[in-house]
Amino acid sequence: MTSIDLDKGGHEPPSAEQFAEVQSSPEFQELRNRLRRFVFPMTALFLVWYISYVLLGAYAHDFMASTVFGNINTGLLLGLAQFVSTFVITGLYVRFANRELDPRAAAIRNRLEGDKA
Q1: What are 69's strand-pairing partners?
Q2: What is the DSSP letter of 45?
Q3: Residue 75 vs residues 50, 82, 88: alpha-carbon distances, Å
Q4: Integer Cα distance of 110 and 103 in angstroms
Q5: C-alpha span between 68 and 47 (Å, rounded)
Q6: Could you please report the per-residue DSSP string of the chain?
Q7: What is the Cα–Cα distance from 98 to 92, expressed in whole angstroms?
Q8: Over the range 3-35, which residues count as b (16 or more CB within 10 Å of their CB) and which as e?
Q9: Counts of helices then strands in the chain (DSSP H, E)
Q10: How many CA atoms lie within 13 A of 54 on its CB side?
Q11: Over the stretch 65-95, which tens digit does the pLDDT of each residue have?
Q12: Rg for the chain, CA atoms, rounded
């Protein structure tokens, strides 16, 4: 039994030392690295996409005003695509978290808290 494991019948909350030990464990490091490998590139991609949209709106008026069909122009379609991309990113993150992060986090929590988790 390691110092991270708690007595299954005990009701003591994990100590600060136990949290620090878990934080330095390879399992927690892997969890954090997986999260970062998803979040940082996705955030960068979205920021580039958003800033591009803003810059196009500010400096490429003719392009953004180009009629696609009827009263619909490029700027409107790109603006709507901002909302779509936000929902897509959210869906991708939820699927990623359910498959990759949540099982690992639950295993770490169960190891730390035992039956109380």
Answers
A1: 72
A2: H
A3: 12, 11, 20
A4: 10
A5: 25
A6: --SS---TT--PPPPHHHHHHHHTSHHHHHHHHHHHHHHHHHHHHHHHHHHHHHHHHHH-HHHHT-EEETTEEHHHHHHHHHHHHHHHHHHHHHHHIIIIIHHHHHHHHHHHHGGG-
A7: 10
A8: ebebeeeeeeebeeebeebbeebeebeebeeeb
A9: 5, 2
A10: 6
A11: 999 999 999 999 999 999 999 999 999 999 9
A12: 23
> Quick one: tokens of 44?
């960068």
Cα 2 to Cα 10, 22, 38, 111: the distances in Å are 15, 11, 31, 10
Entry pTM: 0.78
Interior CA angle at 104 toward 98 and 106, to 5°?
Answer: 85
In one-letter notation, the amino acid at residue 44 is A
